[in-house]
Amino acid sequence: MKTMEAKSSEFVFFLGAGASVAAGVPDTYSFVRKFVDSIHNDDKRETIEKIIEILKKWKKNDIDIELLLETLTKLKNKENEPLLQFYSHGNFILDGYYDKAPLIDDLKDFIKSKAIVSEEKIQYFQPLLALIEEFRPLDIISVNYDTSIEQFCNVHKLAYQDGFDVHWNPKNFRTEHTDIRLYKLHGSVMWYQTDRGDYIKLPVMTEESNIQLITGEKAENLMLYPMQKWDYAEPFLELSVEIKRLLESETCKFLVVVGYSFRDEHIIRILWDAARKNRDLHIVLIDPNAYQIYFEKLQYYDNNQTNPSSLNGKVICLPYLFEKVVPYLKNYYLTNLKVGLSCEVAQHGAEISGLPPAWVFCLENFVAAEYTDKVEAILKRNPLDIENFPMQSLDFPLKMAINLSLGGKEKKAIESFRIFCDQMRKISIDKLHIRLDLSQRPRITNNSPNFHLKLEFNFLSNNQGGGSFISGDKFIEFIVTRLEFCQNRMELSGKNKSKAKNIFNFIKKMREYLEPFNNGVIDFEDYLLLRKSQITDIETIKNDYKNLQTNFTLPQARILEDRIEHIEREIIKDIIR
Description:
Elements: E1 11-15, H1 30-38, H2 42-59, H3 65-76, H4 101-115, H5 128-135, E2 138-142, H6 148-155, E3 160-161, E4 180-184, E5 187-194, E6 199-201, E7 210-212, E8 218-223, H7 234-248, E9 254-258, H8 265-277, E10 282-286, H9 290-298, E11 315-318, H10 322-325, H11 329-352, H12 359-369, H13 372-381, H14 390-406, H15 410-430, E12 432-437, E13 444-445, E14 448-449, E15 452-458, E16 469-471, H16 472-493, H17 500-514, E17 521-523, H18 524-530, H19 538-550, H20 554-576
Parallel strand pairs: 1-2, 1-9, 2-4, 3-4, 9-10, 10-11
Antiparallel strand pairs: 5-6, 5-8, 7-8, 12-15, 13-14, 15-16, 15-17
Helix pairs in contact: 3-4, 7-8, 11-12, 12-13, 12-14, 14-15, 14-16, 15-20, 16-17, 19-20
């Protein structure tokens, strides 16, 4: 089998437990609940419930499957724990409870039973095919034991290498004609270590973690748990070295991390080291708790959050469900991110050359990629001019507010939404103009001309000739598309009760307000029917309109337009307020 140098992909994936939830594999917390529910032996159940109760009191939170397995293993071998030698006269709380050793085997067998993924449950990985086509071979790092990626490769007839043929052989990562290189840092339900110290892969359907080979050897599942991090196991050590080399490679630009909470300190340090050496490395973090994970685990070297790490400002947080967002990953998020970073380099080059930089183009891509740290940094140095970029001044803070709100960054979300509302006030109230227009759908009623009202938002400067003009139909189109954006992002996050819904409801009210103005225009008589309950002097306006129909003058038309503008501004003020 021919081998080659294993160069890193431009995009590398890192899969945590959250990447396999849609395939039916429990996440690390629901694993615990499902395991307890699976126990029918009363003595075993009583023991495991007591252990979980003690751990919850200690953690002051729910516990995950890794902590439970780590605890069971330490309880089994508690006499070997050096820390316990420093306590005296202590009573062991679990004296008299069921033995821990069988519970460990039960838990390992349960993990394996849930980690074997069926073919029909991995369809949501299908958008990765486009990335494989462009960046073959695609590097995927995983800390999951399940068979999601292996099953995905099987269904789509993809050639993958995971360091095994039958025996462990890391040279396989350099095999030609490979579609996916799969680095399973914590092992797999298909990997075994024999009692003679060999490492083998057996793709057999068994829910037991201990098996016997036809050679007479006994083999146990090779799955690495947190407490075992520094235990010697050849595949894990070589895999760690391999992914460190990949991430530090100058060809690696983006690490897409999915559903991983960074509980493993050594993996965090690998990423910090890689970001120091590979200055182009950015992380796209996909998880409903992405911002919390970034802040607590990656952004700072210290627990006091005072010493920014090499990843500070280089993480794009997408607080969404992986199976929902993966269809948008290649052609939307990653494409916009690449273009934005290239544009940033070009604008820095323009500044060095003494040319005026066009930061708005970078911002458009970074806002689309939801790279909030970068957008904030650029806007801090180069605030947008609403006179020249009115729609961007609305668009950027709105999209930022939605992303931040869904990510649980409420304070920043409120700041962005206030900026949006302030810009909306300036555009839809301060710059609103109503024009009486005879050119739209002209008709004669009772020998009198029929006028229409036309919405306009005028930023044109009489003195300098700069600024922008927004037609009513363009403004309506903007509101409609941004309403769809808000709805889409809430669907991606799966958070229907998020405060982002308040933002959605505000945009919805603006859409309802603009709906009667078809393409920014409304028949004057239709307008009077629309506003009859909101205009106190409607008879006066009707009379003015009739007079205008029989004796049209520009000054009288302007007076009527001003009255309509005042009415519309008050209505919009109520919506914004």
